[in-house]
Amino acid sequence: MAEEQIKTVDGQPLSAESAQLLEHLHSRAASLGPAGIRDRVRAAAAEFENVAASVSDEEARRHSIPGKWSIAEIVDHLAQTQIRSAEELRHLLAGKRPPRPPVFEGLRSGAPGWVSWPELQDGLRAANAEVVALLTQAAEGPEPTPATVPAILVVGSQKFVAELGWREYALTSRLHLIEHRNQIKKLCAAAATA
Fold first, then answer.
1. Is the pTM here over 0.90, yes or no?
2. Which of 6, 15, 128, 138 is the most buried (most CB within 10 A)?
3. Is 11 within the bounds of a domain?
């Protein structure tokens, strides 16, 4: 599906920022080999995990910015998203279209309300490790048969669905980790000034 045909979920044309994201995904996916993609996702996962590890249990559960998720909720969101993304990647790498439903934005569980902070972090590390293991298999094996998945992307205030191959899909995982790493840094900064 060409970018000019993609519309937001409310039927609006893509913004320049959204179109640039898609172009970035396509060009990076084409220029990076499977090992390069894996390395970038692995680095983003490690950076996120290190930032989360620097936060105490009390800080993780605090709502530093009214109306925004706590750090524990962000970690849970990424764990839930990453493990579902691993399922979809497994299908893509087998040359198959993943079954519906797609990985929806805002995916979370009830875990932040009762699971210990170390256990939330362990869940995220396990989910990240699963994604990296699949990307390692892709880096060491033959190029998979082309298949796509409908990926829900959020850029600023726009939400849209784009058909992505495994390389672009993996790179969205990297961007998602970076986005939420930056969100945690903002929450920590807000808590420090409160």
1. yes
2. 128
3. no
How does pLDDT run across 146-168, given as a tens digit for each residue? 999 999 999 999 999 999 999 99
Q: Is residue 136 part of a domain?
A: yes
Strand, coil or helix: what is 189? Answer: helix
CATH number for the domain including 183? Answer: 1.20.120.450
Burial of 86 per CB tally in 10 Å (0-12, 13-18, 19+): buried
User: Residue 38 is inside which H or E element, if any?
Assistant: helix 34-53
CB 143 within 8 A of CB 96: no
**Per-residue pLDDT tens for 89-115?**
999 999 999 998 888 888 899 999 999
Is the bond preceding residue 101 a cis peptide, omega within 30 degrees?
Answer: yes
How many domains, the chain? Answer: 1
